[in-house]
């Protein structure tokens, strides 16, 4: 563990005034993230921050496709923009609504809620950024309020990254928000409700990290076992464009002084690969060594195992590239292996499996690799690779599609196996598209796989919406 100097700022919050829907009378166990209608199936949220809304270029949109026994079902969907009735604000050019997504049952009513980042929103100055909470209900998402932004003069692009969980270990769900500096991470404290006041929070910066890039990605999970979730932070080293990543316990007031270093990377996912009760971390770094000294030819993913104190320093990280024995393909310049990562139990054996996107593969046609968890950790045995040319996958691989730019492993069908959803934001000259493959005992199956683009879910194809730039985190 390396000690880092930091400045910590604390601020009290004042109540937010907004038009809100009435509180629901439904009371139940908190829903799993992204289960917006409480039916036990994970729904799929798809960000298209480049979408044109009412003639406003790059205003941004989010499609939510609800889960069903056959997977994401486009006939049951919700389209969200800042012009949607009941949403705070209004769609404006370059807002980039939908750049980041996160979910939790913030008000513990049995329906998961959706957090949407809009880092291009103008406020007291250009690109202040904002975050919107959209509330879940039996009929899906409905009603919204803004997440309080309590240091608006001290950061920009608020909402460029998001995570939700009980990070301060007080029993209420909180929201971690990434921004550019001087404050790069904000913790908005729960409880977060439809009509209640805001309850405080904190903001911080780390002097060894770039304030111009800020916190670019967030993930979280119970790294230490049964306790509260910790947060994985991603940014850039000050004065460079090189990736940096760290593990933080936000229960500690001066958590920036106690960051645990992680392998440098731009994205991550958290899940228990070896079923030992401690969540593990997969860190993706898709860059070449010429662009980032921590990168690799064609990109790489590093798996760090969790333990009772956070990172298990007694266990060597597992480094994976397409040249690793058992991993399909070969490492080639520009593959961008590790640009997207997600952990989830595809085959229902209780061990988290890993999906890795390589959107630069084959002239940016793109590919996705799935590796499996086991009692000894992640294994390359039976690893599989998928492209749009794989039998049963709709469509065809074309240069520039970027299939695999985002991947997510979540159970859309309710069969307790994670389904593989993949986006290709470059499909059809920047329209973008999403695929979903059912989880099965042998891994993702192409039988019954589905694909859909922005037009199917009501998103305009004017310009380049980049449908799938963000997926369930």
TrEMBL record:
PROSITE patterns: FG_GAP (PS51470). One of its GO terms (cellular component) is integrin complex. Transmembrane segments: none annotated. One of its GO terms (biological process) is cell adhesion. GO terms for molecular function: hydrolase activity. Residues 189-222, 413-432, 439-473 are annotated as: Disordered. Residues 439-458 have a biased composition (Low complexity). Gene3D superfamilies: Integrin alpha, N-terminal. Residues 1-27 form the signal peptide. Keywords: Glycoprotein, Hydrolase, Repeat, Signal. Residues 204-222 have a biased composition (Polar residues). This is FG-GAP repeat protein. It comes from Streptomyces tuirus.
């Amino acid at each position: 563990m390396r000690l880092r100097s930091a400045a910590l700022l604390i601020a009290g919050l004042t109540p937010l005034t907004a038009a809100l829907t009435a509180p629901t009378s439904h009371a139940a166990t908190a829903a799993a993230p992204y289960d917006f209608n409480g039916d036990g199936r994970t729904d799929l949220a798809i960000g298209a921050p480049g979408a044109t809304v009412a003639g406003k270029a790059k205003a941004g949109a989010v499609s939510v496709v609800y889960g069903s026994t056959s997977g994401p079902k486009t006939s049951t969907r919700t389209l969200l923009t800042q012009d949607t009735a009941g949403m705070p604000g209004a769609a404006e050019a370059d807002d980039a609504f939908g750049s980041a997504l996160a979910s939790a049952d913030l008000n513990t009513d049995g329906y998961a809620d959706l957090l949407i980042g809009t880092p291009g929103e103008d406020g007291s100055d250009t690109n202040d950024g904002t975050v919107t909470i959209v509330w879940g209900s039996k009929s899906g998402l409905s009603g919204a309020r803004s997440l309080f932004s309590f240091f608006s003069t001290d950061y920009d692009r608020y909402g460029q990254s998001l995570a939700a969980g009980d990070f301060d270990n007080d029993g209420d769900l909180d929201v971690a928000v990434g921004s550019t500096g001087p404050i790069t991470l904000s913790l908005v404290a729960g409880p977060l409700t439809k009509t209640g006041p805001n309850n405080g929070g904190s903001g911080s910066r780390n002097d060894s990290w770039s304030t111009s890039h800020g916190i670019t990605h967030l993930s979280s999970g119970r790294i230490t076992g049964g306790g509260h979730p910790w947060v994985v932070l991603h940014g850039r080293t000050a004065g460079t464009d090189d990736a940096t990543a760290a593990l933080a316990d936000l229960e500690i007031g001066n958590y920036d002084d106690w960051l645990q270093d992680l392998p440098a990377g731009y994205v991550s996912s958290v899940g228990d690969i070896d079923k030992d009760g401690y969540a593990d971390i997969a860190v993706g770094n898709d860059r070449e060594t010429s662009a980032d000294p921590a990168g690799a030819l064609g990109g790489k993913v590093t798996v760090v195992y969790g333990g009772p104190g956070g990172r298990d320093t007694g266990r060597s990280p597992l480094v994976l590239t397409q040249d690793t024995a058992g991993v399909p393909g070969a490492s080639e310049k520009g593959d961008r292996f590790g640009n997207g990562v997600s952990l989830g139990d595809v085959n229902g054996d209780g061990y988290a499996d890993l999906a890795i996107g390589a959107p630069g593969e084959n002239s940016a046609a793109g590919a996705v690799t799935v590796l499996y968890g086991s009692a000894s950790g992640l294994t390359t045995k039976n690893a599989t690779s998928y492209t749009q040319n794989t039998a049963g996958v709709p469509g065809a691989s074309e240069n520039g599609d970027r299939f695999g730019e985002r991947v997510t492993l979540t159970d859309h069908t309710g069969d307790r196996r994670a389904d593989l959803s993949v986006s290709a934001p470059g499909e059809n000259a920047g329209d973008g598209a999403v695929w979903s493959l059912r989880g099965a005992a042998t891994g993702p199956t192409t039988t019954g796989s589905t694909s859909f683009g922005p037009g199917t879910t009501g998103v305009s194809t004017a310009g380049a919406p980049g449908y799938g730039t963000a997926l369930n985190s």
